[in-house]
Structure formats: structure tokens, C-alpha cells
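INFO  loader      accepted 1 record
INFO  loader      residues=148
INFO  predictor   begin
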Amino acid sequence: MLSTSAVYFLVTYQQFTDESGYGIREMPNQKEVQQGTSDMDSSQWTELDLGGKVQTIFFLVVAIVYVPVGLWMLKQKHSNKPHVIAFAGSLSLILFYVVSRTISLPIVGIQNDIGIIDIVTKIFQSGIVVSSAYLVIMRRELEKKLSI
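INFO  predictor   done
INFO  writer      dumping C-alpha cells
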């Protein structure tokens, strides 16, 4: 959980400093768009700017949420609640990733980029899903055996 959070913080940082033109810092200002010194028209830059901001905020929120859930898992070692939350959250993020690569979503459109960070986060999240499910199932079986 904490490693996945670190990766998402890295992605958020990259979104702020992206030199490819899709990061927030690299967006043309209104003056450039109005003067026509940009390659894209105003509506395209507005969509790109809004999509970039939404993605950056999304990555930041995910990074922040993973930290307390990860710490909760470490602190409450005998509780299923943080593991269920981690399972549901990580599975949701994996499904959202697949949907974002196959369907054009409002604001961000269809995403066609698949990078090393995408792969790393999905591997980490798959590990969270599998290990959380395993721990919850094993705890339930252990509780059944102890209650007999």
C-alpha cells in the first residue's frame, strides 16, 4: 500500500513537471491561446488543461488515501476492515484503468498511453487485491476453526 502510494506521488509530481506538453506547468496560458501562438485551438487546450488537472488531482487523492489505509493495515493487524477497503479500492482502480483505455471518458477522453509506471502500479495493486483477499479468507477460516 505504501509503495503504491509512493508511485502515485511520483506520478503526481511528473504531472506537474511533464515536459511533453500535457502537464499542468506546460499548458499555454490564455494569452498564447488568444494570440494564436499555440498549435491547438482554445477549446482543445481547455479540454487538455482540464483533463490534465483532473488526472493530477486524481493521482494525488489516490496517493494520499493509500497512506492512511496502509498504516491502518499495519496498526490493525487482526482486523479485516482495512484489507477489505484496500481490496475494493485497488480493484476499482484496476478496473478504472482498463475502462479508461477502452472507453472515452468525460473530460480526459480515451487514454492510449501505457507506460512503465502504469504497469508497476497495476502490479502493486494486483498484489494488494490478491494478498488482501487471501488474508481476509484465511482469517475467516481461522475464526471458524477457533469457534468450533
